[in-house]
Design a protein that fits this description.
The protein has 17 helices and 14 strands. It is α/β, with parallel strands linked by helices and about 475 residues long. The longest helix is centred in the C-terminal third of the chain and has 27 residues. The protein is globular.
């Protein structure tokens, strides 16, 4: 899909006439590529911390250009980073930023304690996921349970490290919820194959599905992981992207603590569950994908395991400092009374309210298309509609050597310039076809995107009827 899109871009640059004048990349959750504006406070700190000499060289100019709380934050960080942001840091990440993350987690979870020693700052959430998978997979007999549909980071990483992926299916008809009976089916089947299932991946809010889990569902999942002695890998990078009041977001850590399976006062002792949660600066309203900032928190692991993960992190010396700074800003934004607070709240709320409108608008538009059904986009940055393709389209896809939904998505790209991802890229039940679209096209362009897609879809269905 992306290679074809790049070819079209080159053709447009050369002046060739195509059915469209520009491409719209709805294939990846990359907010700022689709014109989401950065948070001013975050960028001001990032700018000043890259050239801090100007604070002493031209203090009056700095006071004119930057608010006082920006200058204070930069000075705070620099005082705790020997050598400045061009130097290596502690392999787990800058201590004061890990302290900010711990305070953020504790506040988010209603006062449940968190420790900076359990926090690892990473180059986005992905390296954290990969480090944990690398540490637990010994050979192909070690398996990890992964939802279908899933974010391909998991299938690719498990394959890369020589493990085996064990599928469990989300219930599309029930808004992509997770049935514990399906989890039991999946793990029992794996055991029959003599696999050692070591972990279960949960993505909440869901990618690519856009669902959010109820707290009741989460309790069942935590109990299941505890029962089977599985490490629970909680991918929670979309925790700020919630578009429904039906299931307010809650962390797996909080659920596990309330069930007595994690002791917040002794996070290094396994009380029934081992949990690793992941977060990122790439999503939410921060949207700083290119900064590559993220963190993971360990709960229920003894000190020896943390030290082994520390050794693993030390191989790469440290995560990038620009990303670490952005994690600090994401988890410790301006507070009431700060000079930048009013603008920060305005920018944050404008982004989130706009994303919510776009999610609902896109979901409604998909459900109006012939043969298409889209579950509510409750969270994350995606819609994942199911499409019933005509028999002739399926036959044409087979003749072309393509998966039917990939055939549809390529035709959509060639006709409209809209780039989406076929469901076959994420996994899906046999006989069903889907595609994933982000909700990120700018609000003033969304009607045009919907119009292009609707016109194409009607013509495609008519062509292969």
């Amino acid at each position: 899909m992306v290679l074809r899109a790049m070819q079209h871009m080159e053709r447009i640059k050369k002046g060739e006439k195509l059915p469209f004048n520009s491409l719209i990349f709805c294939n990846i959750g990359n907010p700022q590529e689709l014109q989401q504006q950065p948070i001013t406070f975050f960028r001001q700190v990032a700018a000043l911390i890259n050239y801090p000499q100007i604070i002493t060289e031209q203090p009056e100019l700095v006071k004119q250009l930057y608010p006082s709380d920006v200058i204070e934050r930069v000075q705070k960080y620099l005082a705790r980073i020997p050598g400045g942001i061009g130097a290596y840091t502690h392999s787990q990440g800058i201590e004061c930023i890990r302290e900010e993350v711990a305070h953020y987690i504790s506040t988010r979870d209603g006062g449940i304690p968190a420790s900076s020693s359990d926090i690892f700052l990473t180059d986005g959430a992905s390296p954290g996921v990969q480090a944990t998978l690398k540490s637990m997979i010994r050979d192909h007999n070690d398996a990890v349970m992964v939802p279908i549909p899933q974010y391909p980071l998991y299938s690719a990483s498990i394959a890369l490290f020589g493990g085996t992926m064990v599928n469990y299916y989300l219930e599309e008809a029930n808004n992509w919820s997770l049935n514990v009976h399906e989890l039991e089916r999946s793990i029992q089947q794996a055991k029959k194959q003599n696999l050692t299932v070591r972990a279960i991946v949960i993505i909440n809010p869901g990618n690519p599905t856009g669902n959010t889990l109820s707290e009741t569902n989460m309790k069942d999942i935590v109990k299941f992981a505890s029962k089977h002695n599985l490490v629970l890998l909680a991918d929670e990078v979309y925790q700020e992207n919630i578009w429904t009041n039906k299931h307010p977001w809650v962390s797996f850590k909080k659920v596990a603590v309330e069930l007595g399976l994690i002791d917040p006062k002794d996070t290094h002792t396994n009380k029934g569950l081992q949990l690793i949660s992941f977060h990122s600066t790439s999503k939410g309203y921060t949207g700083e994908c290119g900064r590559r900032g993220g963190y993971m928190e360990l709960c229920g692991f003894d000190e020896g395991v943390r030290l082994e993960l520390y050794k693993l992190a030390s191989i790469s010396l440290c995560s990038n400092t620009a990303g670490q700074i952005m994690v600090g800003l994401m988890t410790n934004p301006p507070k009431p009374g700060d000079f930048s607070y009013k603008l920060y709240i305005q920018e944050r709320d404008n982004i989130l309210s706009s994303l919510k409108r776009r999610a609902q608008k896109l979901e409604n538009a998909f459900n109006k298309l012939e043969g298409v059904s889209c579950q509510p986009a409750e969270g994350a940055l995606y819609a994942f509609p199911q499409i019933t393709l005509p028999v002739k389209a399926v036959e044409a896809a087979k003749k072309a050597g393509k998966a039917p939904d990939a055939f549809y998505c390529l035709a959509l790209l060639d006709a409209t310039g809209i780039v989406v991802v076929p469901g076959s890229g994420f996994g899906q039940r046999d006989g069903t076809f889907h595609f994933r679209s982000t909700i990120l096209p700018p609000e003033h362009l969304l009607d045009g995107v919907i119009s292009r897609m609707s016109t194409f879809h009607a013509q495609f269905m008519k062509q292969y009827k």
